[in-house]
Design a protein that fits this description.
With 325 residues, the protein is of the alpha+beta class. It has three domains: 55 residues, Winged helix-like DNA-binding domain superfamily/Winged helix DNA-binding domain (Arc Repressor Mutant, subunit A), CATH 1.10.10; 207 residues, 2-Layer Sandwich (BirA Bifunctional Protein, domain 2); 48 residues, SH3 type barrels (Roll). The protein has eleven helices and 14 strands. The termini are far apart. The mean pLDDT is 90.
Length: 325
């Protein structure tokens, strides 16, 4: 645990703590405490300082906790107990998990959850912006016996179960935008990124990364170049990230197990019901080319079917973007 996280854990009760007391408990100077508090404030957390009383957070705060997460997983915890990794800070949960599972025989369900992610990635080379200690960032790995072609549609299936998880948490009004954006009120709430490694004959290793906006600070909001929304803004209350993480992990485990047996088929109908652009006129951007038509749904591999004046075209994710027309 980093010094910054230890200080945050002490402040998480919402009470005042003096710099002297924090320093004594951690074995560091008051100057070091002040420096770490400054970094916490820069990360987007509201830390108040009152002369003579010390530091306190604007509101009580809950850090991610591995023991609580396992408890919330209930009887599913046994499936990933030895493969659940909760870390303070990484550059990317996908890359971190990749380094952990390389060369290991059983990786199914291996999961990395982090408080801070400095190099998170979105689609098409974009950065994933997330306020430290305030959002849900995780990755889960799975290995399939066949080649990469058998995992077509997996990110769409994951989108379906992420929406289900949010609904179980109590969040409504959430849908999907092809291929793998979770949106509400035409603003992005969560995103998925799938890294696939494998030979044509298999096996194929998949690492699925997920970022959910639980709370985005004003500072981080200024760095996001597309419409966004967060759960705190939608619900008007602080998000229990441990509970949300447990629900998401359970749904992802179910998704991977069913997908390994039956592929995208069991998720296709639900995906089409959740697609907020279904039946609408859309623009599909593919490099320099622009295609305009009606979004009709997805095929058995997750490709977007667009009806144009004289034909139907099927698009696969890659470097394709979907926009309303």
């Amino acid at each position: 645990m980093t010094t910054r996280t230890e200080i945050l854990r002490m402040l998480s009760d919402g009470a005042f703590h003096s710099g002297t007391d924090l320093g004594k408990k951690l074995g560091i100077t008051r100057a070091a405490v002040c420096k770490n508090i400054h970094h916490l404030a820069q990360s987007g957390l509201e830390v108040h300082r009152v002369t003579g009383r010390g530091y306190k957070l604007e509101a009580p705060f809950t850090l991610l906790d591995r023991a609580r997460l396992l408890k919330l997983l209930g009887n599913r915890a046994v499936e990933i107990r030895d493969r659940l990794h909760l870390v303070d800070e990484v550059d990317s949960t996908n890359r971190y998990l990749d380094s952990l599972i390389t060369g290991r025989p059983n990786i199914d369900g291996a999961t990395c959850v982090t408080e801070c992610q400095s190099g998170g990635r979105g689609r098409r080379g974009r950065s994933w912006v997330s306020t430290p200690y305030c959002n849900l960032m995780l990755s889960m790995a799975w290995q399939f016996p066949g080649g990469p072609g058998l995992v077509s549609g997996l990110s769409l299936a994951a989108g379906v179960v992420v929406v289900r998880a949010l609904q179980e948490y109590g969040v409504s009004g959430v849908g999907l935008k092809w291929p793998n954006d979770v949106i509400s009120d035409n603003r992005k709430l969560a995103g998925l990124l799938v890294d696939v490694q494998g030979e044509a004959s298999g096996p194929t290793r998949v690492i699925l990364g997920l970022g959910v906006n639980a709370h985005i600070s004003r500072e981080d909001a200024s760095r996001i170049d597309q419409p966004w929304i967060d759960l705190q803004g939608m619900t008007g209350e602080a998000i229990d990230r441990n509970r949300l993480a447990a629900i998401v992990i359970r749904h992802l485990l179910d998704m991977f197990q069913l997908f390994a047996e039956q592929g995208f088929g069991p998720f296709r109908a639900d995906w089409q019901k959740l697609h907020l652009f279904h039946g609408q006129r859309v623009r599909v951007l593919q490099g320099e080319k622009v295609f305009i038509g009606i979004a009709e749904g997805v095929d058995e591999s997750g490709g977007l079917v667009v009806r144009q004046a004289r034909n139907r075209q099927v698009f696969h994710s890659g470097e394709v973007s979907l926009r309303p027309s």
